[in-house]
Design brief:
By secondary structure, the protein is α+β, with helices and mostly antiparallel strands. It has eleven helices and 34 strands. It is 19% helix and 30% strand. The model is unreliable at 1-24 (pLDDT under 50). Alpha-L-arabinofuranose is lined by residues 52, 54, 253-255, 386-387, 419, 473, 516-517, 527.
């Protein structure tokens, strides 16, 4: 064991000796499972996903577009692009702004090639472009003849200068861009195959022949996307989500909902319809942290609200959109819209429900149909505001709630109780919203692993008749919240597993929970820890991911009690539930100690069980263990069997382990 691991182990043991009850670790614990005594129903939504466009989760991540700043709308219109020419006389590029004619997509470039020499532009992608050997790539561009040049040469180039794909594209043969007929734009496309794999390729676009051509919406997508949808999502990343079988997806955040100022808040209407009409804005994480500036971080909204609803449907998750409530991020400008001016914000919420559920004869239901989904998306809940606090939130929430409930009484609303799970801000909102009979309170906790262990019984004493709880954002922080030093190590994940047994035990109160944030690009992140990390070609789930996945794929229909709740005795945490369709008892047991433990599990209240149980174990030799792109499965589930004699199970729980035991009840 190295010194770091030893330090981790010691700190863990110290913590346990403080929190565990008096029984010595080596004396076996008897666990009585009252399998015949139904506890509380576990909602299908229980374990879900929190998606926010942070850490390049959307552009450069889930949205498979490879060209950065494809429409020249970044603050610096040529950010991500470079001219390629031997002599100044070879050519030029002019950025033209036609805002009056096209406010959502104002800029395009006018490229002129004057000489016999080569002239073109390169695009660097999102920290490069991930290209795979033998995969097909679709290149497309809007172009308009302006005298002369009518063809492009497209190349994919490695950092070493090797060509790994190329195509010739004659311009002007493609379809007229709809809505832009008068201005003569055409969309031309070409598909070609890459000859090598490269995580950091660049795209070169050479102008063939002399003359001038206008270009806009320059795009490169892999043919292979999730469900092979053109212009779609990165398949490996969606697969990791689908494998979790999440009960819901919260979207689009997070602070992104709020914006640093109201002008850059998330406005869903600007994220639907044709991609070229979705107005790009700066991402609020672009400038948030001095230690991780990301000047090229913008939101193209290629992954917008339609794609979100479609993704949720694809992977069987309930949609949970969060809507701006007239408040910008209170950690930043804290701007609010005056109460008298709140109607457009409220209308956005109402219209979003119509977009998701309304008949195709309605304006927004009609747009959903025109985008390819006439059937409703079956939206049942909506969050009002993200991490808001103070009386200004209550004033605004009250107006939103009245309007939404009047028109859509069946929609359940999720309300903020602020950024912390305790303290003045929390107490004020918690008390006030309970008095207002709010539906669901959205609690956030970014806390130490020790906090998670100490609060595994948090909900045991919550009011059973009050609002339901959504643990909407949580993650154990190995260092401190919002520092770049946090690690997705096993110590953090194990503490989350221990804590989640408390959520499951209280499933009558806690009806939804999601780890946050979800995604991080290894070269483009701002916030750590995160559930899933990726580069331009690869991705992996952290130990936290496997904890989430094990809970979600072993959800159960209702809880059954243990003789005594297992909330840290001997460093053990646990919960039990029944999977009704499968007739199986599911036990989740977390051993947070450095020693193996052999609890004796007595299954009571049933006549007979199968003689063999299935056991899935997540463990690591030391609590500092992490997964990585190079070793993605270092901490990952391993399955085995356990015999059951006379309704008694005697598993050996490995040190620092999380075990899921499933046994059929006869
Ligand atoms: O998950 C990262 C951020 O943490 C979210 O955007 C915000 O809601 C919280 O403060």
């Amino acid at each position: 064991m190295n010194r770091l691991s030893l330090a981790f182990a010691l700190s863990w043991l110290l913590l346990l000796s403080a929190s565990a009850q008096t029984r010595p670790v080596d004396a076996p614990v008897n666990i009585f499972v009252r399998a015949g005594q139904p506890g509380v129903t576990i909602q299908p939504t229980m374990w879900g996903i929190f998606f926010e466009d942070i850490n390049m989760a959307a552009d450069g991540g889930l949205y498979a577009e490879l060209v950065k700043n494809r429409s020249f709308e970044f603050n610096m219109p040529l950010m991500g692009w470079k001219e390629m020419k031997a002599k100044p006389a070879d050519g030029s590029v002019l950025v033209i702004n036609r805002a009056a004619e096209n406010p959502a997509n104002p800029r395009f470039i006018r490229v002129s090639h004057y000489s016999e020499g080569n002239y073109g532009l390169s695009n660097e992608g999102f920290r490069g472009m991930g290209i795979k050997k033998d995969e097909q790539y679709h290149f497309s561009v809007w172009d308009r003849a302006n005298g002369g040049s009518r063809a492009l040469r497209i190349e994919l180039i490695t950092p070493e200068g090797q060509k790994i794909g190329s195509a010739h594209l004659a311009l002007g043969a493609g379809s007229m861009v709809s809505g832009a007929e008068a201005s003569g734009w055409r969309k031309d496309t070409v598909t070609f195959t890459a000859t090598a794999t490269e995580p950091r390729a660049k795209l070169y676009i050479w102008i063939e022949g002399q003359g001038t051509v206008d270009l806009d919406m320059v795009s490169l997508f892999p043919r292979h996307t999730w469900k092979e949808r053109p212009g779609g999502l990165r398949a490996d990343l969606v697969q990791l989500l689908a494998d979790m079988h999440p009960g819901f997806i919260r979207f689009p955040g997070g602070c992104v909902v709020e914006g640093r100022e109201l002008a850059t808040r998330y406005q869903w209407k600007k994220t639907v319809g044709k991609v070229e009409d979705r107005q790009l804005i700066v991402n609020r994480w672009n400038t948030e942290f001095a230690w991780r500036p990301t000047p090229d971080y913008f939101q193209s909204f290629g992954l917008g609200f339609f794609e979100y609803f479609q993704l949720a449907e694809d992977i069987g998750a309930s949609p949970l959109p969060i809507i701006n409530c007239g408040m910008a991020c209170q950690f930043n400008t804290a701007e609010v819209a005056p109460l008298d001016d709140l109607q457009p914000y409220i209308q956005d919420a109402l219209d979003l429900i119509e977009f998701a559920n309304g008949p195709v004869s309605t304006r927004w239901g009609g747009l959903r149909a025109a985008m390819g989904h006439p059937a409703p998306f079956n939206l049942k809940m909506m969050g009002v505001g993200n991490e808001q606090w103070g009386p200004q939130y209550i004033e605004r929430y009250t107006l939103f709630s009245a309007a939404i409930k009047k028109q859509y009484p069946a929609i359940r609303l999720v309300n903020s109780v602020g950024p912390n799970p305790d303290g003045d801000l929390f107490d004020f909102l918690n008390d006030t919203l309970r008095k207002l009979h709010a539906d669901i309170l959205d609690e956030h906790y970014y806390r130490s692993p020790e906090w998670f262990l100490q609060h595994a019984a948090r909900y045991d004493s919550y009011d059973r008749k009050g609002p339901k709880i959504f643990a909407g954002e949580y993650a154990a922080q190995s260092a401190q919240v919002a520092t770049p030093d946090n690690k997705n190590n096993w110590k953090c994940a194990l503490s989350e597993a221990a804590y989640m047994t408390g959520l499951e035990r209280n499933a009558d109160v806690v009806q939804m929970a999601s780890y946050a944030p979800l995604f991080a690009h290894v070269d483009g992140w701002q916030w750590t820890p995160d559930l899933i990390w990726f580069d331009n070609l690869r991705s992996y789930g952290t130990p936290d991911y496997y904890v989430q996945k094990l809970f979600a794929t072993n959800k159960g229909s209702y809880t059954v009690p243990l003789g005594q709740p297992l909330t840290g005795q001997n460093g053990l945490y646990g919960s039990a539930c029944i999977d009704q369709p499968a007739h199986e008892l599911i036990l989740k047991l977390v051993n947070t100690t450095a020693q193996p433990q052999g609890p004796v599990i007595h299954i009571e209240g049933v006549k007979k069980t199968a003689v063999t149980a299935r056991v899935t174990v997540l463990k690591a030799a030391t609590p500092d263990k992490m997964n990585s792109l190079e070793d993605p499965m270092a901490v990952s589930p391993v399955s085995g069997e356990l015999s059951c004699k006379g309704r008694v199970l005697t598993p050996t729980l490995a040190p620092y382990s999380f075990s899921v035991i499933r046994i059929r009840l006869e």
